[in-house]
Amino acid sequence: MVWGDCLSMKKKIFTYIFSAVCGILTAAALTALFAALAFVLQMKRDMAGGMAFIAFIAGCFVSGLLCGLIKKRGGLKIGAICGGVLLILSLSVSVISGNFTGAELAAKTAAALLAGCTGAVIGVNRKSDP
């Protein structure tokens, strides 16, 4: 019975890791797209923060969506976990790089959790597989 529990735990953790990696890749792809767009359109530097925030929220949404599609239950809980994992990773990178100010922490936390929960609920309630 111990080995069955261990395999079950590995499957649960793998789902969250897979979803988080896909969310990070989504955010990275959108960040690259927004950077190219800003370069081509000669946008002001003030727009970079907003575009990075949109990319981060899209990554949280995709992470929750994929986790919801895989797990098929507990949308709000798994969405909050996915949004929280990406938030912790994002805050860790901010602290390590020295760019953490804390001013946007509440808004970023609320948006990450909301996007992750929204994606997971949509994924759980999807009638057919993609």
Key words describing this protein structure:
mainly alpha; 4 helices; about 130 residues
Report what the structure shows.
It contains four helices and no strands. It has one domain. It starts with a helix and ends in a 6-residue tail after the last helix. Helix content is 83%, strand content 0%. The chain has 130 residues and is an all-alpha fold. The radius of gyration is 16 Å and the shape is globular.
Task: Produce the secondary structure layout.
Elements: H1 2-41, H2 47-71, H3 75-97, H4 105-124
In short, what is this structure?
The protein is mainly α.
DSSP helical segment count: 4
Strand content: under 5%
pLDDT < 50 stretches: none
Percent helix, as a range, is: over 70%
**For the residues shown, what is the average pLDDT?**
86
How many structural domains does the protein architecture include? Answer: 1
SSE topology string = HHHH
Instruction: Profile the largest sheet.
Output: none
Span between termini: 34 Å
Q: Give me the secondary-structure category.
A: mainly alpha
Q: What is the total tally of β strands?
A: 0
**Structural shape:** globular
* Rg over alpha carbons: 16 Å
